[in-house]
Design a protein that fits this description.
Lambda Exonuclease, Chain A, six-stranded mixed sheet, alpha/beta, single chain, about 220 residues, 7 helices
């Protein structure tokens, strides 16, 4: 949290995720490095997003250090290529490369909501359609919260340009399954946005308290 601003990712990652502990334990019993698997998934996602931005985006921003780090890992490049191939195939079917879509596609769109004091970065907008790319094996609660968050922030900033379609495209980087598309009802997106908004004060209060905790703990050691 910098200057009172929070990021969407900070907020949606706040809920406890017991499934991650179970997953890590399962991998450990199989002799698999959980941290390595988790990092590989993040790297694959970064590569998939970057490749989509290069082919379909309208941004000339240079490659960030996080993406460079991903491309420096040969295994991540392989996994990222799998995810990107699925997303590119889906995008071609959807018509991203056709003249009909030319000029409509916005990619990696930064968004700041001064009312909520929250910042984020949306994957893709095509007209009234909001898209989010995932390279994970499964979708989780935070995926829906993220869509709800961006819809809420966008509505605050552009009330006359509401989204009408909310879609997640999941391109698992670990297997040969095709891309899967998940489209959501407006009522579910709006509910997710309200839940996201309700989480902001709690996350902000916790982060402020967490920053003060060292002093509080140090003071308690003195017996005061």
């Amino acid at each position: 949290m910098r200057g009172g601003w929070l990021s969407v990712s900070e907020i949606i990652s706040f809920p406890d995720k017991p499934f991650l502990l179970q997953w890590a334990r399962k991998l450990a019993l199989q002799g698999i490095d959980y941290a390595r698997v988790s990092r590989l998934g993040k790297y694959a996602g970064r590569i998939m997003h970057w490749e989509f931005q290069q082919k379909y985006g309208n941004s000339l921003e240079p490659m960030g250090k996080d993406v460079q780090e991903a491309y420096a890992d040969p295994e991540a490049v392989e996994h990222g290529g799998i995810a990107w191939g699925k997303l590119d195939e889906w995008a071609n079917v959807y018509g991203f490369g056709t003249p009909k879509r030319e000029g409509q596609i916005q990619v990696e769109i930064p968004i700041e909501d001064p009312t909520l004091m929250v910042r984020g970065r949306m994957d893709c907008i095509v007209g009234p359609c909001l898209f989010d790319w995932k390279s994970s094996r499964h979708l989780y609660t935070e995926s829906l919260l993220e869509l709800g968050a961006y819809d809420l922030m966008w509505t605050h900033l552009y009330p006359d340009k509401p989204f009408a379609v909310w879609t997640i495209v999941r391109c698992c980087h670990e297997d040969d399954s095709p891309a899967e598309q998940y489209s959501f009802e407006e009522s579910d997106i709006k509910k997710a946005g309200l839940v996201f908004a309700s989480m902001i004060p709690a996350v902000r209060a916790f982060k402020e308290f967490d920053g003060e905790s060292k002093g509080i703990l140090a003071k308690s050691m003195g017996g005061e």
